[in-house]
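TA notes, week 10

Several of you asked for a full example with nothing omitted. So below is the full record: C-alpha cells for the whole chain, then the designed sequence directly under it. When grading your own attempts, check the secondary structure regions first.
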C-alpha cells in the first residue's frame, strides 16, 4: 500500500491508505472536540460534588480553553522539529493522562490541573490533524479528505452535550473523563499503523521570543473575551487588562514575525496568499456569528421553553444533520469546481437559517425551529469544508504545518469574540425584557439579529474568492 506521504500530487483518487489515515485522525480529534461540551453539562454536578463556588468551578472550562490557546502556536514548529506522527502520539498520551487525572481528581484544583493537560494536548492535536491531512492529500483531494473528517468535527459540539448529559445522569461525572481512555487507546493504535512518520527537521529552531509573545497574547485575548461575557461588558479592569495586554503582545508578535531573520513560530506570510487570507477571513466571520448563535439556541430552549439541558442538546440535532449532508455533498465539489460559488451559497444558507431564528417566540413550532437549524447547518457545513480546503491550496507542503496553526488561531479567536458579543447582547436584552416567557423569547429573537449580521459579513471574503486566478485545472492559486 502506498503511504499517504508518497502519493503523487496529481493523483485524484482517495486511496485506502488516505481513508485509513483520515479515520485515524477522526478518532484522535473527535474526543477532543466532544470533551469541552461534555464537561460543560457536568458543571453543576462538579460544583456540588466538590462543594466549590461557581467562581472556582468555571475554571474547569476556562483552564481548558486557555491551555489550548497556549499550545496551538507550538503545533507547527513541533511537527517540523519532531515529525507529525511523534507529536501526534505524544499529544494523545498527554490527553489520555489528563483524562485519567480528571476522573480520579480529588479536588476542584486537581481537576482544573487535569484540564490544563487536556487543553495543551487538544491545542496540538486539532491543528496537527489538518496539517497531516493536507500534506497527505495534495491539492486535488483535499476537499474530499477534509469532508471525511469534517462531519465528526461538526457533530462533536452537538453530540457532546447529549452524551455528557446521559453519562452524568446514568454513570456519574467521572465517566466524562474515563470514556476518553478506550477512545485514546484506539486512536494510538490506528495512528501507529496508518500515520506517516513525517519529516523531522532537527535544525528547526524554536522561536522562543515569538512563543513568549504569542501564547500569552492568545491566552489574554481568549480570557478577556470570556470575562467580558461574564462581567457584562468590556469596561471592567478584569476584562481590559488581559484583553489589552493580549492585543499588545499580539501586535508585538506580528512585528517580530515580519522582521526576524529566523523562521517565526507562526509564518504570517501565509496571509499574503489571497486564497489563504480570504479563507481565513471567511472562517473567522462565519465562526464568530455561528458559534455565538450556538450559545443562544440551547439557552432559548431552556430559558424560554423550560426544556432540560439534555432535551435542549437533542433539539440541536437538525443542525448537525444539515452540516453532515452539506459536507458530504460539497467535499467532492470543491475538488472539481471553483470555491467561490460554493462558499457564497453556504453563507447565504446560513444567513437564511438565522433569519428564521430571529422570529422565535415562546410558542414557535418545533418543526419551524428544526427547519431553520437544518438550513443553518447546511450553510455552515458547506462553508467550513470549502474554506478549509481552499486555504491550503497553493501552499508548499513544507509551509502547511505552521499554516494550520495560523488558521486554528483565527478560528479560536472568531469563536471567542462571537460568544462574547452575543452573550453581552443577550444579557442586555434579557435585562430589558423582564421575566415573562414572551419577552424572554423576544429577547432571544432580537439577539439572533446580531448573529445574522455577523454571519452576513462573511459574504465579503467569500466574494473575494471570485478574484483568485485559476490555474492547473480547477485549482485557485496565487
Amino acid at each position: 500500500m502506498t503511504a499517504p506521504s508518497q502519493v503523487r500530487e496529481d493523483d485524484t483518487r482517495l486511496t485506502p491508505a488516505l481513508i485509513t489515515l483520515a479515520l485515524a485522525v477522526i478518532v484522535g480529534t473527535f474526543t477532543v472536540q466532544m470533551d469541552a461540551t461534555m464537561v460543560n453539562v457536568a458543571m453543576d454536578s462538579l460544583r456540588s460534588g466538590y462543594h466549590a463556588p461557581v467562581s472556582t468551578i468555571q475554571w474547569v472550562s476556562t483552564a481548558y480553553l486557555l491551555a489550548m490557546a497556549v499550545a496551538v502556536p507550538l503545533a507547527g514548529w513541533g511537527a517540523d522539529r519532531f515529525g507529525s506522527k511523534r507529536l501526534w502520539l505524544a499529544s494523545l498520551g498527554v490527553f489520555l493522562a489528563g483524562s485519567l487525572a480528571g476522573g480520579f481528581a480529588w479536588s476542584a484544583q486537581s481537576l482544573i490541573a487535569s484540564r490544563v493537560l487536556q487543553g495543551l494536548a487538544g491545542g496540538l492535536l486539532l491543528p496537527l490533524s489538518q496539517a497531516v491531512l493536507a500534506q497527505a492529500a495534495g491539492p486535488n483531494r483535499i476537499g474530499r479528505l477534509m469532508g471525511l473528517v469534517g462531519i465528526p468535527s461538526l457533530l462533536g459540539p452537538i453530540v457532546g452535550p447529549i452524551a455528557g448529559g446521559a453519562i452524568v445522569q446514568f454513570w456519574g461525572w467521572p465517566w466524562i473523563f474515563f470514556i476518553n481512555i478506550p477512545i485514546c487507546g484506539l486512536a494510538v493504535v490506528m495512528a501507529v499503523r496508518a500515520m506517516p512518520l513525517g519529516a523531522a527537521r532537527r535544525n528547526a529552531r524554536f522561536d522562543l521570543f515569538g512563543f513568549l509573545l504569542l501564547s500569552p497574547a492568545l491566552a489574554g485575548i481568549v480570557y478577556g473575551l470570556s470575562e467580558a461575557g461574564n462581567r457584562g461588558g468590556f469596561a471592567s479592569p478584569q476584562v481590559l487588562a488581559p484583553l489589552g495586554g493580549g492585543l499588545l503582545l499580539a501586535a508585538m508578535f506580528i512585528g517580530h514575525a515580519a522582521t526576524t531573520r529566523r523562521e517565526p513560530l507562526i509564518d504570517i506570510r501565509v496571509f499574503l496568499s489571497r486564497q489563504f487570507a480570504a479563507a481565513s477571513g471567511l472562517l473567522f466571520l462565519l465562526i464568530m456569528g455561528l458559534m455565538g448563535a450556538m450559545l443562544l439556541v440551547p439557552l432559548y430552549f431552556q430559558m424560554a421553553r423550560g426544556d432540560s439541558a439534555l432535551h435542549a442538546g437533542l433539539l440541536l440535532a437538525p443542525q448537525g444533520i444539515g452540516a453532515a449532508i452539506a459536507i458530504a455533498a460539497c467535499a467532492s465539489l470543491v475538488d472539481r469546481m471553483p470555491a467561490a460559488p460554493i462558499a457564497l451559497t453556504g453563507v447565504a444558507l446560513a444567513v437564511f437559517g438565522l433569519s428564521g431564528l430571529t422570529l422565535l417566540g415562546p410558542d414557535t413550532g418545533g418543526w419551524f425551529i428544526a427547519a431553520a437549524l437544518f438550513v443553518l447547518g447546511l450553510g455552515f457545513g458547506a462553508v467550513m469544508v470549502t474554506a478549509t480546503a481552499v486555504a491550503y491550496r497553493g501552499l508548499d507542503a513544507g509551509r502547511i504545518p505552521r499554516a494550520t496553526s495560523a488558521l486554528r488561531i483565527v478560528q479560536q479567536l472568531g469563536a471567542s469574540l462571537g460568544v462574547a458579543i452575543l452573550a453581552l447582547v443577550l444579557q442586555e436584552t434579557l435585562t430589558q425584557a423582564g421575566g415573562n416567557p414572551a419577552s424572554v423569547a423576544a429577547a432571544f429573537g432580537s439577539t439572533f439579529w446580531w448573529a445574522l449580521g455577523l454571519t452576513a459579513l462573511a459574504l465579503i471574503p467569500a466574494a473575494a474568492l471570485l478574484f483568485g486566478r485559476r490555474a492547473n485545472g480547477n485549482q485557485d492559486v496565487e
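The domain at 1-201 is CATH 1.20.1250.20 (Growth Hormone; Chain: A;). Use that as a sanity check on your answer.
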